[in-house]
């Protein structure tokens, strides 16, 4: 079953390769979507794919790459059409 989740990641998640690392994990698990920085310091992640794969990425978001310090991850079901790939933007 295909799902999409929109996640808002709070903490030290900008400037620590969080988006690039998320894109690498998404590719590993065949998840599409995006990761982009928000003006308030959080990172927004849209993750779409098989439920099991999206769950693995969402679990990973809770700790992120080596230098990240994740405080919280807010997760919502998303009605977005699944993108063809995973992208990172500002």
How would you describe this structure to a colleague?
With 90 residues, the protein is of the alpha+beta class. The protein is 24% helix and 42% strand. It has a five-stranded mixed β-sheet, covered by helices on one side. A hairpin with a 5-residue loop joins β2 and β3.
Going across the major beta sheet, what is the strand order?
Answer: 4-1-3-2-5
- Rg: 12 Å
Secondary structure: number of strands: 5
- Low-confidence segments, ≥5 residues, pLDDT <50? none
What's the number of helices?
A: 2
The description of the largest β-sheet is: 5 strands, mixed
Short description:
The protein has 90 residues and is an alpha+beta fold. It is 24% helix and 42% strand.
Using brief descriptors, characterize the structure shown.
alpha+beta, globular, five-stranded mixed beta sheet, 90 residues, single chain
Indicate the topology.
Layout: E1 2-12, H1 18-28, E2 32-37, E3 43-50, H2 51-61, E4 69-77, E5 86-89
Parallel strand pairs: 2-5
Antiparallel strand pairs: 1-3, 1-4, 2-3
């Amino acid at each position: 079953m295909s799902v999409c989740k929109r996640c808002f990641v709070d903490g030290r998640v900008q400037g620590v390769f969080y988006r690039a690392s998320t894109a690498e994990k998404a590719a590993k698990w065949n998840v599409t979507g995006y990761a982009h920085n928000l003006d308030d310091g959080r990172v927004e992640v849209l993750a779409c794919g098989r439920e099991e794969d999206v769950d693995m990425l969402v679990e990973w978001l809770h700790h992120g790459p080596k230098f990240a310090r994740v405080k919280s991850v807010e997760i919502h079901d998303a009605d977005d059409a699944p993108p063809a790939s995973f992208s990172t933007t500002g």
